[in-house]
Amino acid sequence: MTPPTAITADNPVLRVPPAAPAAAAAYFGASLAFHADVSDVAAALAADGDPGFVLLDSRSTTSWDQGHIPGAVHLPTPLIAGRAPGLLDPAVPVVTYCWGPGCNGAARAALALAGLGYRVKEMLGGFEYWVREGFAFETRQEHGRRAADPLTAPAGSGDCGC
After folding, report:
1. Cβ pair 69, 42 in contact under 8 A
2. In angstroms, what is the C-alpha Rg of the chain?
3. Burial of residue 118, with CB atoms counted within 10 A of its CB: 0-12 exposed, 13-18 middle, 19 or more buried
4. pLDDT per residue as tens digits for the range 86-139
5. How far apart (Å, rounded) are the C-alpha atoms in residues 58 and 83?
6. 123 forms bridges with which residues in the sheet?
7. DSSP E strands: which ranges in the chain?
8. Distance between CA 95 and CA 72 in Å, rounded?
9. Half-sphere exposure (Cβ direction) of 74: Cα atoms closer than 13 Å
10. Which residue, among 64, 81, 85, 63, has the nearest Cα to 73 in the 3D structure?
11. Which of 4, 40, 42, 44 could form a disulfide with 51 if both were Cys (CB 3.0 to 4.6 A apart)?
């Protein structure tokens, strides 16, 4: 057996050593308490019955009209404080999404909802990865679906194995 690679300043990945296993378990466990991925959200919504959460699109009306996830509730982040109490049941967890990984709108919406007492998760990847993974979407005029991008979703299978 070869010894582990030495941690040196020459290795940009290991310049800062990996966390101890217990710290890593705590961090990644906490991460999963705050995040859901597109495939898991799609599977929960596709299953028979209540998925156990409300999916909330936190983008503007213009963005919603351009495309959104069927069944999502539309509540732009600036309107959350005034409208969430009349629209969302505090006993039901909320999963927020925005445009995609380059947008922190879902995190801002989740923060606003948490501040009102809601249990929240952010859907990683947002609407961009929902569409890129080949899931159905709606626009103001129509329903649509694109072929899954083979760089973001497994070709020919709904299960990525992770």
Report:
1. no
2. 19
3. buried
4. 999 999 999 999 999 999 999 999 999 999 999 999 999 999 999 999 999 999
5. 12
6. 36
7. 35-37, 54-57, 73-74, 94-97, 120-124, 137-138, 143-144
8. 10
9. 15
10. 64
11. 44
Question: 77 near 105, Cβ under 8 Å?
Answer: yes
pLDDT tens figures, 65-79: 999 999 999 999 999
- How far is residue 147's CA from residue 135's CA, in Å, rounded to a whole number? 8
Query: Which of 138, 126, 136, 145 lies closest to 65, judged by CA?
Result: 138
Taking the C-alpha atoms of residue 13 and residue 49, their distance in angstroms, rounded to an integer, is 44
Query: Look-up: residue for tokens 């249990």?
Result: 119
Q: Residue 130's closest CA among 21, 34, 39, 61? A: 39
Residue 22, both tokens: 């217990």
CA pair distance 11, 32, nearest whole angstrom: 29
Q: Work out the mean pLDDT of the chain and round it to a whole number.
A: 89
Whose tokens are 């990996």? That residue is 18
pLDDT of residue 140: 82
